[in-house]
What we know:
The protein is mostly helical. The protein has helices at about 5-10, 15-50, 55-80, 90-130, 130-150. The chain has one domain (about 5-110). α2 packs antiparallel against α3, α2 packs parallel to α4 and α3 packs antiparallel against α4.
Amino acid sequence: xxxxxxxxxxxxxxxxxxxxxxxxxxxxxxxxxxxxxxxxxxxxxxxxxxxxxxxxxxxxxxxxxxxxxxxxxxxxxxxxxxxxxxxxxxxxxxxxxxxxxxxxxxxxxxxxxxxxxxxxxxxxxxxxxxxxxxxxxxxxxxxxxxxxxxx
Length: 151
C-alpha cells in the first residue's frame, strides 16, 4: 500500500488518503485504549488497597492523554513532512508502539504491586501463626485484667 500524504493530496487521490487516515486513526485509538486500560487497572488497585481516589489522579490521566496526543500529533506532522521520502507513517507508528508499551508496563506494575500486597499479607499471617503461643498468652493476660476490673 502506497501511503504518501502530500502526493495523495496533490493528485486528489482521496481513496488512498482515506486508507492512510484510517491507519493513523487506528494508531490514535490504540493509544487511547492503552491509557483507558491503565486507568482501569490503576483504579482497581486503588480500590483493593483502600486508597482514596481523588480528582487529582483522574486529572493525571487527562494530562497523560493530552501529552500523548500532543506527541502523536507532532509525529503525524513529521510523517506528513517526510511523506516525500517515506511511504508509511513510520514516526506515528513508532510513537504509538512506544506509548502502548509504556502503558502496558504501567499495567504490569499495577498487577505486580497487587501481588506484592498479597504476599505481604501472607507473610504477616505466617508471622502471626509462628508466634501464636505468645499472642494467646497476651490475650489471656488481657482477659484476666478485664475480669479483675469487673470484680
